[in-house]
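Ticket #4471: structure output looks truncated?

Reporter: J.K.
Steps to reproduce: submitted the chain below (220 residues) through the standard prediction queue, then opened the result file.
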Amino acid sequence: MNNRPVFEAEHNCICAYADHSILEFYKGYYESVYIILNPFTKLNKATIEIEKVKWKDFLKISGLKDINQLDIALRNSISGLNQKYLEKENLSKLNGGCENHGLTPPSEGEFPKILINDFLASLLDLEHQFMFVADEHGFERKLVYIQEVINDPDKVELKFSGHENWYTNKHEVLYTTHWDSFYSLLCSDRQTINTILKKYPFEGFFCDHNTEIYWSLKKW
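Returned output as attached by the reporter:
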């Protein structure tokens, strides 16, 4: 019989759990959390991302009302929500906006390739030379030089799973993402996040004490 306790990683190296206040989840670890809305992208003929399109701009071309509707439509596009949240008209607007303007929607549960170098450069700007690359559950991690990851993003491989948790060696900054969501989380103190946003104005918003992983469903 296996009597080992259930593994639970420290909250300073993983994404917040669903159905909990994000700020409460990180209480005692990180003062502030900024939700980065992963952008839509345009691809060239070699399928390389060459242009990012913000959610606010996609709203204008799609006819969707706000980022809540857009987030729900994105989640419905991968059947990531209960059927009671299905809004077929808004899903059609999402698909039409992408098809009519040659855009690729963000992928769920991973850092957007077009922002990765900005994420990494922001850590170098703060004079962090290395970071941990870890799997989503906190089981496995590797210490890497940030510049080496910039030079070769595919160089770091974990044995058992993907790596969508990046955090500095003393847990000053955490970049993470939820496996079924279309945004990234930037966790740190408010001053550090503002310093990063001043140079890298990622589209998004700061969490308040009511913000949860499924923040777009609050109207329900």
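Triage note (M.O.): checked the attachment and the full token line is present. The radius of gyration is 18 Å.
Status: closed, working as intended.
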